[in-house]
Amino acid sequence: MSKMSEMAATIEELRNAAAAINEAASWLAEQFSGNDEPEAPVKEPPLTLETVRAVLADKSRNGHTSEVRSLLQKYGASKLSEIDPANYKALLADAEVL
Prior knowledge:
There is one protein chain. The chain is an all-alpha fold. Helix content is 67%, strand content 0%. The longest helix is centred in the N-terminal third of the chain and has 31 residues, at 3-33. The protein is rod-shaped.
């Protein structure tokens, strides 16, 4: 066998080995990329009166005072402190469109 044919054979063997290593790496990555444990749901911190007040105050400062009052009335209150904390999320969602 000539030196060139030996070199060509060696190059071909290296390419085959590289392809085999790449296939093995892909298989391993696929096997271990999935997380067997389900991800814990991200728990949102509870909304506080102060957080809601800050958002509504900002809306009021931007010229939406009457709309903010209407939102409070929608939730059966004349002032924010009278609103049930369970309604804070919905109130903020309504305030987002102002």
